[in-house]
Amino acid sequence: MITIDAALDKAGLLKSCRVRGHAGAGPKGGDIVCAAVSVLTRTALRVLSRGEGITVRGTAPERGLVGMEIEYTGQGREFLSAVGAFLLEGLESVAGEYPDYCSIYILSEGLEEE
Fold this sequence. Notes:
Elements: E1 2-8, E2 14-21, H1 32-49, E3 54-62, E4 65-72, H2 77-97, E5 102-108
Parallel strand pairs: 1-5
Antiparallel strand pairs: 1-2, 2-4, 3-4
C-alpha cells in the first residue's frame, strides 16, 4: 500500500508531501500504481525546483520513500498553486481509482481569510 501524506499551509498551498510504501498492484517494474505515483511526484518535485521564488527540499532516503518540503515567496505563489493543485489532483485520482493500493491524506492548516 502506498500512503501519501500532504500538508497545505494557511493559504491552501502545498507545504509538504510524503509518499511511502509500495502498491503491490503488479510485479516489480510493472506496477501501474507505483509508476503513476512516482511519475507525478518526481515531475512535481523537478518542476517546483525550477520555479522562481520557490525552495524545495526533496528526499528519497530509500526505495519506497519520497518527501518534499516547499517554501515560497510572493512571486512563487501562483506557480506553486498551479503545480501543487496538479500534483494533488493526480494523486487523488490514482488513490480514487486504486483504493486497495494507494491512499492519500491531506492536512490543511485552514484557509486564511482574504
